[in-house]
Amino acid sequence: MSSVFDHGPFAPCPAPFNMAAHVLRHADTLASKTALEVLGPAPETWRYAALKSAVLGTATGLLRAGAEPGDRILMRLGNTVDFPLAYLGAIAAGCLPVPTAAALTAREVAPMLDTLSPRLILRDDSVDCPADDRIVPLADLRAMRALPPAAFHMGDPERPAYIIYTSGTSGVPRAVVHAHRAIWARQMMIDGWYGLDGSDRLMHAGAFNWTYTLGTGLMDPWTAGATALIPAAGTAPGALPGLIADQQATIFAAAPGVYRQILKSADHPAMPHLRHGLSAGEKLPNATRAAWEAATATPIYEAYGMSECSTFISACPDRPADPATLGRPQTGRRIAILGPDGPVPRGAEGTIAVHRSDPGLMLEYLGAPEETAQKFRGDWFLTGDQGAMDDDDQITYLGRADDMMNAGGFRVSPIEVEQSLARFPGITAVGAAEVAVKADTTVIAAFYTAPAPLDEDALRAFASENLARYKQPRLFIHLDALPTGANGKLMRRRLRQQYEENQ
Q1: Which residue, 94, 147, 146, 96, is CA-closest to 122?
Q2: Which of the 8 DSSP states describes residue 319?
Q3: SS3 of 33, please?
Q4: Which among 285, 255, 289, 249 has a CA at the least distance from the CA of 269?
């Protein structure tokens, strides 16, 4: 039997369609229900009616500021509710929001401006950004919420809706264009990962301006008519179990690193309403899963995905998976494990691939038709990650074929880190790799050659000026030479192996 999961075509997305309208489809009937609670010293409560009003008022404001349907709007906003309101407001107006990590430096944002040519830039002064006359200050953005509501811009569900950035093997962040239909595909996640319905109170531990939070923590609960709970910026991981208990959260979502931080404390309050946890962003270590289950008596269901297709392999309450695997393809997906000649036999290693027909799959890499084409083999989109599918459809993850690193759930290109550090005076060569520093904990390490070891504080300062925090190496290691193959190509996996063998 070949390694193909094909449950048949998913229900087609209706037309005309607007992604934001779909997310807020329950807002009128659930007008007085709590859609969002921001938990912290200055709590905020958003009812569904107020949420929809703020989103459509923002849409009006963006149009009055000069944006038109099809325009791109760059988002340089912090960890506040302004982020999802602006994101949905732009989509409601038919514009393409481009969310970006607040930790990016002005140097990193500058090439994005050239690639995107955004009509507007929404900016919080606390977030770094090059000076630009297209900037809409945060105060002006907030004032838009009170404007009369715009009508949802309806149209072809295949038209572009938003753009997100992901690091690629070239070292240059790629702009991934998604269609309005992408939100329609997330119904497969609601059933095949979350086990979510309108009665749930889902708490997400991530920041507002992280796409994992934006999707799993906000838009999906709102699409289901549920309540989203988001801890305020600066909430310590150790405080999260108390919030789960106090807020009667039924589902908790976080990256594996947050679960590890929570488990550092031996004492946890009873969480009687919690049914299960969700994990994504990186592979959940079995030790972390076991410790959480022992401490809370609740399971964790994890999911695998990527910027180009969100999550499409997962475990769920109705179909738990072997903890050693990623889970199963969600019902409605077409997933395969491909070798050079097509799908490999069950149990054999190959590249995890998504069928072109998946409604959650990206449209393209912006302005890069050749690179987009290279990601496809016939009708299959190649993820670049290796896996094997067993007879029960469970997929075991076997590693990243492209040497990508993972930092707190963000995928980081080693080439991007290397190109930045190579400018540091004295460095003659540099290689970056993700290394294990202890059980269940990995960090980004920079291995470099120089006539002598360089000042580590100076290296850290240089990295902080030129790279977002999550991209900055935590280790700087001087070597006499970097390992290379017969063709002179840097062997990043050997860097990792050598480091871990010597620990």
Answers
A1: 96
A2: B
A3: coil
A4: 249
CB under 8 Å to 314, separation ≥6 — which residues? 189, 192, 193, 301, 302, 303, 304, 321, 326, 327, 328, 330
User: What is the rounded distance in angstroms from the CA atom of residue 90 to the CA atom of residue 19?
Assistant: 10
**For 453, phi and psi rounded to 5 degrees?**
-55, 140
| Helix, strand, coil shares, percent, the chain, to 5 | 30, 30, 40
The tokens of 257 are what?
């690193």
Phi and psi, residue 90, nearest 5°: -65, -45
Q: What is the 3-state secondary structure (H, E, C) of 159-210?
A: CEEEEEEECCCCCCCEEEEEECCHHHHCHHHHHHHHCCCCCCEEEECCCCCC
Question: Do 391 and 346 touch, CB atoms closer than 8 A?
Answer: yes
pLDDT of residue 205 exceeding 90, the answer is yes
Residue 58 pLDDT greater than 50, yes or no: yes
Q: Determine the Cα–Cα distance for residues 381 and 420; give it in Å rounded to an integer.
A: 30
Partners of 443 in the beta sheet?
A: 435
Tell whether pTM > 0.85: yes
Query: Token digits for 168?
Result: 């690629």
Give me 461's structure tokens: 């300062």
The residue written with tokens 């031996």 in the block is 266
Task: Give pLDDT, residue 402.
Answer: 67
Interatomic CA distance for residues 286 and 185, integer angstroms: 29
Close Cβ partners of 313 (under 8 Å, ≥ 6 residues apart): 303, 304, 305, 326, 327, 328, 329, 330, 333, 335, 352, 395
Domains, the chain, ranges and CATH? Answer: 18-154 (3.40.50.980), 405-501 (3.30.300.30)
pLDDT over threshold 60, residue 168: no
